[in-house]
Amino acid sequence: MNVHSKGLAPVLSSSSAAASETADARTGEILAAARQAFAEKGFDGASMQDLARAAGMSVGNFYRYFPSKAAIVQALIALDIEDMARDFEPVFASDDPIEAMRQQVRVRLVQHQCNHDGALWAEITATALRKPEIGLACGLMETTIAGYLIQAFAAATGFSLEQARTRFAAHAALMVMLVKSSAMMPQKDEQLRHDLNAMILRIIDQTLDEIAASGAKG
């Protein structure tokens, strides 16, 4: 029996991995469909039936993946956190983390606005005020991003992580707030959006310059 078990183990492990990848891919497809449905109908306007229909599923099957809108939001935020982690990899690896961060911020501003999902996140942010489970998920995203920023600030200045957290927590929170606000910016007036983007980037550049100077003085 043990011999047969050993022989089957790699096959079972391989099958399990393939099944997991298939499930992850399907979950990603469902989340993409849900994001599109939210964009079209609004977060409050899209019912679970609408979301199931958008994913090409029965409502009962949809609930097996996501039992509530809060669960969908949590999954969307988890994906965004994964994307953000990948964005910070070149920042941490760079010889000049501050300059690398400037470039990433500019890319993120454009991506957020081109995705046209700012209205969705504005609705989700408003919903977070009255639904604690969504509020916790949104808070986790902001604190995670702020943590990445502080880690990059520590690398850029030579301060320890704890010193960087003490010195630059407000700087990180400001940058998170500015990038988040830019995503929710109205899309109708292109010139206004352009001018606001320029102001946001100017403030972020000044913030990063202040951090870099602080490290040089230290």
Automatic annotation (TrEMBL):
The keyword Transferase does not apply. Keywords: DNA-binding, Transcription, Transcription regulation. Residues 24-84 form the HTH tetR-type domain. InterPro entries: Homeodomain-like_sf, HTH-type_TetR-like_transc_reg, HTH_TetR. Residues 47-66 bind DNA. The keyword Transcription regulation applies. One of its GO terms (molecular function) is DNA-binding transcription factor activity. This is TetR family transcriptional regulator. It comes from Cypionkella aquatica.
